[in-house]
Design goal:
single chain, mainly beta, 10-stranded antiparallel barrel, 3-stranded antiparallel sheet, 1 helix, about 45% strand
Amino acid sequence: MDWRAWRFGPATWTIAGVLLVLSHSVSSPPSAAQHPPTGGALSGYCPTAEPMLESYCGQSLFWHDPCGSSHREPHYRPVHDSMSAPSWYAAQEFVPLFRDQRGSQTFQAIAFPEMEGSFDEDNNLIETITTYRRESVLGTNDFDTDFDGGIRVTLGRALGDWYRLEGSYLGPYEWSDWAAVRFSPVEPPVPFDPGTDPTFVPGTPPTFEPGDLPSYDPDDDPPFDPGTPPTFDPGTPATFDPGTPPTYYEPGSGLLSPFSNFGDPNGPPGLDELSEAQFIPDENFDYNDYARIHFRSRMNDGQLNLRRRVRMDAERRLRAEASWLLGLRYMNIGEEFGYQATSPLPDRVNPHWRNVQTENKMFGIQIGSLSQFLVVDRGWIDFEIKGVMFFNDASNRIETQFGEEPIWVSQADKDRTAFMGDLSLNFNYQFAPSWTFRAGYNGLWLSGVALASENFLLEDDPLLGDHRSSLDHSGRLVYHGPSIGLVFVH
């Protein structure tokens, strides 16, 4: 089957049919042929004796022996006559989750020129080799995606002693943060030497004698335009604001943009060291003095499951139960990522920015199992594992603006397959006949989703001249965190 072509309609009816067939078996109890008689009110249909919750009366979600066979030590009072299966149950838990995205993406870098000379046998300098070492100064690792509070609500119905139908909702979650970086030249602003005209040689940075504030004669060249920031364009007269020391940028100065691959437009992605010939900053995107990024991510999750108890041989020391489940699951993950940068270069239009929005509407089928281990009187541990295969209706929308130019918009949507693993470990303690306290830890591993930051730069980038739609759906996320709550059984 081509899962990329899987649609909501056929998948929904197929899964619903499977659940209908399974639930049909609930209308009649297991036959005597399946489970030999063991005595009790349901002697014709009882399974082999299995462990029950060590609780004096009341109900809980620990699967127990429907025939009421007690496996306590002799000095315990039998209470199987009051240990009936629950009819309805509900749980509410507080579940703060941490969002962990795979890897880290750089959105501003800085280059450090490093010079190394080669010498002859007489220690005379032959040539000087300049390389540029690049380092990240702003990226997704600067975001704080600490715990965000959410709830899990569960409502279930017991269908006899062997089946349970339950639905649950987890959410709503929203993580958001922003980070920014500013850059100023490492060297302080350099003034002109009074009485000395600045020298401008085409192809080289301007040279001047540092030491004092500049002096000038308004009637002589170069002209001085009050209120205009100083500029140094090789081969043209210098202009600057009287009273403000002039500054300039050398190659490698300023923040480097992801649009130029951080000064290496022709090279592979990354921050490898560059030679002088490879380092080619782009004045349209690089030499930034300020950059800011922000993100927002939200998540909601719902599921409907049919559980069936697994028949297990009774073991006095083990006191364990198990069940498996088959169900439907829906998850929605929507994200937004924004980038903005400015540059002090006078001929550059500022600012330029890009905003990316992605949406993942995922619907799928899941299977799983639950193991329960009685560890103390009225207390047990639940360990549950689920695997989900999603049909993912993924999409993105990218808006870009450079200066005063019109906003460029690119959109893409594709059907993809996503996968998720869901693990939880909980300790339960029945402190009243119908009430159970539970606390534990949860983890969700998700792959195959479209994340906003990973759709910022695509193979077909509209800002770089190609307006074709593209979408990256290779994102991976981990949600994990503790939980605490109450369970009511009726």
